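fyi for ur records
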Amino acid sequence: MSKASTQNKLDQLLPSVQEWKKIVSPHTKPSAVKATWQVINSLGSYIALWIAMYFTLSISYWLTFAIALFAGAILVRVFIIFHDCGHGSFYKSRRAGNIIGFISGVFTFTPFSHWKWEHSVHHSASGDLDRRGTGDVWTMTVDEYLGSSRRIRFIYRAMRNPFILFMIAPLYLFLIRERFSTPGASPHCRKSVWKMNLAIGLLALALILIYGWLPYLLIQLTTICVAAISGVWLFYVQHQFEGVYWEREDDWDFTSAALAGSSFYKLPKVLQWFSGNIGYHHIHHLSSRIPNYNLEACHNSHKIFQSIEPLTFLSGFKSLGFRLWDEKERELVSFKRIKGSVRSTSTAS
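which gave:
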């Protein structure tokens, strides 16, 4: 389905902001029972797996490693809880959400208040070409790329290389980048970074005393690797896919950016569970007040949401070929598509 026909279908089925707000409203109500059960089966499971790994160290490092891989997958789900707490959607109680958000942040190596601020910027500007740069994947337009120096082109191509984007960048992001505040952060957000660093350091010290420094490093790096790589891939495919919505600020529309600028990543049920239903990203961007445990129900509640063409687990890998936004064709394109233009630009310069 073309981008134009998809947008026309959306306009016909859901003509006003007032209408979609009525549709999603029942799903924005948090459930203490569902939330607490997720805390138990996610944070509880993650802690239980760390305990299990302690007892397997004397049996086999390979068994410990296998459990660590599983713990990394659980950590993805823990991050979704952290994410919901950041939106204030997980619990009705703000205090409860902040407590669980902070604890989840310690496990995921992410400062709660600072991330919450950055992520709110992402939600307010997603799909807006004039407000790129905070909480998103670096994406240049074709004209910007062609007009850049060779050094910038080289850096950009390197950053969009799958190995760097999905192996190096995730580890840098969670192990190094999140240890520092960004320009523009408020004093409260900057303080939250150092508080989180202190909490992470104290937990690491305690675990080193219990497990030994080498086992701790092997376990911690394995879990963080699995979670970080999976998380960055999920975020990437949610906003870099065929038919995605991008507009300049004057033409940007919130509803269109949510429903056409965020993917419906339809995963197998087991992967949907581990990823905390975040594949329903179009629903999440439409209303970030919907907790993850209500996203699927909201998606199934109205024909407008079911009209969104889903990405499957396999079709999502097509996104790996997208590198630049072509404003003339209004689509993501590969470097190969502009190869001739790059040569002519280099010759002219």
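The beta strands are 140-141, 265-266, 311-312, 324-326, 331-333. thats all i got for now
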